[in-house]
Model the fold of this input.
Amino acid sequence: MTELTSLTIAAALKGLEKGDFTAVELTQAHLDKMDKYRALNAFIVETPDLAKKQAQESDKRRASGTVGALEGIPLGIKDLFCTKGVQTTAASHILEGFIPQYESTVTSKLFEDGAIMLGKMNLDEFAMGSSNTTSYFGNVISPWKNKNKPDAQLVPGGSSGGSAAAVSAGMVMGATGTDTGGSIRQPAAFCGISGIKPTYGRCSRWGIVAFASSLDQAGTFARTVEDNAIMLRSMSGHDPKDSTSAKIAVPDFTKALTGDIRGKTVGIPKEYRVDGMPAEIEKLWQQGIDWIHASGAKTVEVSLPHTKYALATYYVIAPAEASSNLARYDGVRYGLRIPSENLRETYEKTRAEGFGDEVKRRIMIGTYVLSAGYYDAYYIKAQKVRRLIVNDFMNAFEKCDVLLTPTAPSGPFAIGENDDDPIKMYLNDVFTVPASLAGLPGMSVPAGLDADSLPLGLQIIGRPWDEETVFKVAGVIESLAQFTHRPA
Amino acid sequence: MAQTIQGKTGEWEIVIGMEIHAQIISESKLFSGASATFGGEPNTHVSFVDAAMPGMLPVLNEKCVEQAIRTGLGLNAQINKNSIFARKNYFYPDLPQGYQISQYEKPIVGQGKIEIDLAGGQTKEIGITRLHLEQDAGKSVHDLHPKKSYVDLNRSGCALMEIVSDPDIRGPEEATAYLSKIRMILRYLGTCDGNMEEGSMRADVNISVRKPGAPYGTRCEVKNVNSLKAVQQAIEFEAVRQVEILEDGGSIDQETRLWDPAKMETRSMRSKEEAHDYRYFPDPDLLPLNLEQGWIDGIKKTLPELPDQKKHRFIETYGLSAYDAGVLIAERERADYFETATKGRDAKLAANWVINELLGILNKNGKTIADSPVSAANLGGLIELISDDTISGKIAKDVFADMFATGKAPAAIVEEKGLKQVTDTGFIETVINEVIAENPDNVAAYRGGKDKLFGFFVGQVMKKTQGKANPGAVNDLLKKKLDG
Done:
């Protein structure tokens, strides 16, 4: 029998159904794997006791004939999702020790479908970062190794680095993530797994620690496209508690995985051929185009003329919203408080000590762009450009069904490599940010290895609410790429 | 009727614009399901949203939107079918989110106007600039501990309407008239209880002065003006302060000032330079608010008759004076009471009884019309007894006092105490004969020309009948007997 920790979710569900193993056994196998890979620092909090209890209950439910869509499947939950009774930190010192008295809508739905939580996954502080090096609880280390620099510790990508690393290493079968500018797609690419950010409004944001409300969207990580489809269906749906969640029916996404994309048109945005893009990324992209052709679909070059403004737009809007969203961490009601002689000092000391440098940088940028005298030049201008970027995509989708792009402009890099230059770090998201600004579904699938034997991903971007076509095309690329590499 | 200040250099005009914060009457808060009722132990009406726990999101309460639309319609204002909620960012412990959700560039209600009532039955139109919806903050309590402050979040997130007037108000009389009229309209609409003591209605007053006809002067915003009296006093003080500065060659700093009711003065709270930069921006957690015309029309159909309409109807239908009508419509319940009491009866008499007798005794006993022991139907009954000569106006006052004390119906009291007027001329004649027989000297004096003694005879007859004899009949019969 295959090792339990290398099964897909789909295979594990079948195994559980046939009685090949129990949820308790499946969970234990993953807990053992967590022991083995603890040095990767993928978890902020491990919840083995809760997991075992959930697994026992799952086995009981299965015995009594009640079987949810994720019955008995061990998952990792990004520590941005509030989990009732389990510390939730957003990887920030300012929330250390905070135990929510409520369960996020997304995790509630997963648990209702029988999922098991193995723990809370590490991330960049408040999901701000592309390398998982801003967490107060330490860096997450990728399970992958650079064959040319075997001693270097690599980043798993970010912000959902813990989720991606754990799925890749087989510690969890799938994991939740959130994606504001690429926080699911880029780490999925870096860790050689699949991950999808659905359409903005597909999953409820209720109970997810907010970073940038108009961009934040929950999504999934798993080792196969199908597993993502299973998980996403479970997590999605309208939530009256989130005014921005959409009243749109959730289809069974797995039904879209027909392997047949004949007659589809895949757009290739010419503006994504950026200067200085490594040749191996170019090559991977071309490979993807060839696979599309080989599958009986056609490709068409499309133009997204405002792409070059996307990063700048993102780094006005996201910090603006963050500066306001993070105002509630003031030391008054929960989390860290550094007591002082007066109110102002209490605020200043609490926030100075509670937030890390990247978070502070973004709060300052955000405060600046919303300030009197600068608001029109930055925030309003950015909103206008955002609209133009949305229009670009809508025009492109007149000519094609989905877009195919590389997920990231480079392969995984070593921890510390980009730390001295925030702009260089921000460039990691150059291919993922535009779809975030437009609220579009985007998925990364592993498609090849770079010269260092590290994974590279391709991104499929779809029309609003058309995750099905995204899954369909991703499934085809997955089957043709035959990406079977796993970290050592 | 502009109210002006006479300075050393001549006449100054006071220019006032007001911002009224009115708490919306609703079951739950503007963006959460927590109770919005007043009172309760500290921090017992607080949801996770109100406490701004991580990941919590606001969901707009439809009832509060309806109340805002209602109010907008009552202020004869434009209802904006598209409006936007924005965040007003600032730090304070009683503001858990670190921002107040308010409306900034696109409020739910735009331009409107109301009529205010001034002395001598004059009226004046005051423009409404806008009305917007926003969250209330919690309450900081600083006097429970020498070094600590406490925070009560019960009010945090409750719905407020901010009603902004045009700078059309001239002087303290108009300002209090404006505030009273707004309060009256909100109470009629049932959108705010208008209780300034409990803070459910608060006013900020923007004051500037200018020479008549000159452009607007620099204004100061005066906060903490929490009663009609305070509005008047604060304006009187602040206008004089500004005139004195200007006449001494100084200039007014645009600033926020605080009214100190103990010292009877305004003092600087923060200058323009210290003013907060609230960094308003559209709240990304909330969609733009789009209203359907059908809904607005539906709400319009449920609007009650508003104070001004009612006043005009009272004058026309009941023939009341503008003053009496104004007093009666000041509260919706008072107007309803009057209309019940006067139904099918003499309206002027009913108005007199409500205004002079009922309101007087209620006021003296610290009661409101809602808990009046004399029901409107019973007061109507009393008026009927007067009109049909069952009792005299004088007796009626005694009966009314009895009604107020016991809550009994007037007919029952009249019956019980035998207060029915005596109109039986035979009986009255008998009494008159007695009186004439008992006072031969006075009779002689009267007949000898001392006309003034007539009153003595009336008094004697009334005394013998315990005041129940019909005064008209007594007069007629006495005249006949004495003069005859």
User: Anything to note?
Assistant: The longest strand of chain A covers residues 442-449.
